[in-house]
Amino acid sequence: MTTALPSAAMGGHRTLTVAALTATYMQAVNISLPNAALPHIQGALSMANDEVGWVFSSYIAASAVVMSVTSWLAGRYGRKAVYQVSLALFALGLMLDTMATTSLQFVLARILQGAASGPLGPLSLAILLEVQPPARHGRLSLMWSLCFLLGISSGPGIGGWLSEYHGWRSIFHVSLPITAFIFLAMALLLREKRAARPQPFDFFGLVTFSIGMIGLQMLLDRSERLEWFASTEIWIEASASVLGFYLFIVHVLTTKTHFLRTGLFKDRNLVLSTVISFALGFVLLPTLALTSPMLEELLNYPVDTTGLMTVPRGVALVATMLITSLVPGQIDYRHFMLGGMALVVYANWMMLGYSPAMDWRPVVEAGLLQGGGLGMLIPALGKAAFGTLDPKLRPEGSALLNLSRLYGSTIGIAVVQIFFYDNTQAMHVALARDLTPYRAVAHIAGSIAAPGLAALNDMVTQQSAVVAVIDQFEILMFAMLIVSPLVLFLRKPRPAT
């Protein structure tokens, strides 16, 4: 039986609980906070369209890498020390975000901010479970998950409103006093805790896996700009990715100890849930990354309105997740997984009907359905993953699920960016070719003045971009469709005890 912290016994447990939940929300909201503010950020930093994905993927990838080593860091240097250093670096990243004058500076600041956020989520959950009695652990875990998802979902709405009325730098300023409150609460109330004998950590496995993932991420992010394998840089990134994954696989097969234990991959439900979690991440953030630019740049919605139009998706996600989590354990969770996937697929199918002539209703309706589907899928996925897993492996299994979702989001953003620009160019050529019955470019140029020709080109470009965005929603729809049959291979839930 666990006991609460001495400080918690004196009433500080409430403050620690609020601080830990606030840290979880702050870590998550900063993933999507720049989403609706992208036009202001691009204009201020002269950021090219193909660099927009770095705003999200740099933060997420850095967070995933550091999250993997959080347990070892806390055991080696102390939980409180790691937590406070992370908060201090997070605040430094926020300030560097506001001071950036170029896109490179901004991305580097986002990398620092993301790396510092990595330990905040898992350590916040550990603190919550320690300062509260075991009877509340289930409820606290649910609250922690809700805070994380609410942060991602509410980020565009908050960021859009702040950037429209207070400038884009305000979206980072607002997190500074929150960080200060969390730092002060932990400094005064949290007792230090570290492992008596720190466990060895598989740094070689983490480094090789990270090299493979980062190389793949850079390959996808940079290939469109550098014309794929015509560039030496792309060859270097591809080689680094292949080498990293090769060394990691060999390392896993030839050693007994590595940062992802082989016991995890012997559980069928966890393996299948990890694949589904990757697809969930592939849909979750790329949908936001596509919707806001489409509304702002192609349909000319104000930034604050764009942010507000994403709010119903987040409300539906959190509400449905809360309701699904309260369903009795005797009910088969696989029905909720299939229902959630069906809603997500149907919502993305609705997005295929987007057009420049639509109003706000199709966006809100599709967002509500997709949010509801994700809210059903996420808690059911957790039950599937841990229903048959050895309790000793659950902390590592939880980390594996989180990593798969985060890397799914980074890869998803990169993939939709690549296809978006390819499809935009292809559609522009196809539409421009058919502007006259004779398909004569010389005839058009000779009969339209330069301003009119420029306006015509802008209209064709806009139409091409709208078609390209819709094509990306189709990719996200098929990503969820492909993994849907895996639900049929999940083991039946154990009888409730």
UniProtKB/TrEMBL annotation:
Keyword DNA repair on entry: no
Residues covered by the Major facilitator superfamily (MFS) profile domain: 16-496
Compartments where located: Cell membrane
Protein origin, superkingdom: Bacteria
Similarity comment text for this entry: Belongs to the major facilitator superfamily. EmrB family.
PANTHER family the record matches: MAJOR FACILITATOR SUPERFAMILY MULTIDRUG TRANSPORTER MFSC
Protein name according to UniProt: DHA2 family efflux MFS transporter permease subunit
Taxonomic source organism: Bradyrhizobium jicamae
